[in-house]
Specification:
Blueprint: H1 2-8, H2 15-30, H3 34-121, H4 150-166, H5 171-198, E1 205-214, H6 221-229, E2 236-247, E3 250-260, H7 266-274, E4 280-290
């Protein structure tokens, strides 16, 4: 549509060409006009100077970028090479340190093994119980006379055997002393066992904080506390109590007690308190600590 519109419209698109041709014709015929030509020359000279400056700037910028691009990579390569060499030196140092540590550990392990072997070899053997050493006969060399009779030879041998039987290295007194020491030791052990049996053992106790909640705000809290304290059990001791507000005018009874773990359980205690159904709605354990 726009092309059709411009085709029907009477517009002289090439007028500037004809104007230029007319101007050049008159300049050739009459020569250039002085004032206007001077101004045009001045304007052209300024434009040319600007163009020349722009070209110089462009050339300078291109030369600078070329110099930077040409000098950049070698500098980076030098830095990389220096860093790599530095890392290699550090790596070698670390390897040497690791090798030294491994050698020290190996030496320590060898020393420990040697000490263990020496300790096991020098470990004292258990002392055996006292045993009675049987008498022994000391062999003796005798010079036999040719004139001696066999009867005389037998008599000295029998006498020597009797003398050896009479020798007792430890003696009967040591046996009696061992028996007395054993009796004393048994007596002391018996007395220690009796004392230990008479000594009372440690009683495990716990401190419990109970939250006793009523049915509503009209419940008599003093009567409810009296009912709770009326629970008596072996190993149960009641402590301090206070009323803690819950909301909407309702208060709960918070009461402390100490129980013996072997005699009183929390389940039994809750069952005994909840028996007072007219006052008690529920019982909760707020805190439980071992003493």
């Amino acid at each position: 549509m726009e092309v059709d519109y411009f085709t029907h419209e009477k517009i002289w698109f090439d007028k500037y060409k004809y104007d230029d041709a007319e101007r050049r014709y008159y300049e050739q015929m009459n020569g250039p006009v002085g004032g206007s030509s001077g101004q045009q020359e001045n304007g052209a000279s300024t434009i040319l100077r600007d163009i020349a400056r722009a070209r110089e700037n462009i050339q300078k910028s291109l030369a600078g970028s070329a110099s930077t691009t040409s000098s950049g990579p070698p500098g980076d390569q030098n830095d990389l090479v220096s860093r790599i060499s530095h890392l290699e030196v550090e790596n070698q140092n670390l390897r040497s340190v690791v090798a030294d540590l491994q050698m020290a550990i190996f030496k320590l392990e060898s020393r420990l093994n040697a000490l263990e072997k020496s300790s096991t070899s020098h470990q004292p053997s258990p002392v055996p119980p006292t045993q009675k050493v049987e008498p022994f006969s000391v062999p003796s060399k005798r010079v036999e006379l040719p004139s001696a009779s066999p009867a005389k030879k037998a008599e000295p041998a029998a006498a020597e055997e009797d003398d050896d039987d009479d020798i007792d290295l430890f003696g009967s007194d040591d046996e009696e002393e061992d028996q007395e020491a054993a009796k004393v030791r048994e007596e002391r052990l018996r007395q220690y066992a009796e004392k230990k049996a008479k000594k009372p053992g440690l009683i495990a106790k716990s401190s419990i904080l109970l939250d006793v909640k009523p049915w509503d705000d009209e419940t008599d809290m003093a009567k409810m506390e009296e009912c709770v304290r009326s629970v008596h059990m072996d190993g149960l001791v009641w402590g301090a109590s206070k009323l803690v507000p819950v909301g909407y005018g309702i208060k709960k009874l918070q009461i402390q007690c100490v129980v013996e773990d072997d005699k009183v359980g929390t389940d039994i205690l809750e069952e005994e308190i909840t028996k007072f159904e007219d006052y008690v709605q529920s019982v909760d354990i707020a805190a439980f600590n071992k003493i």
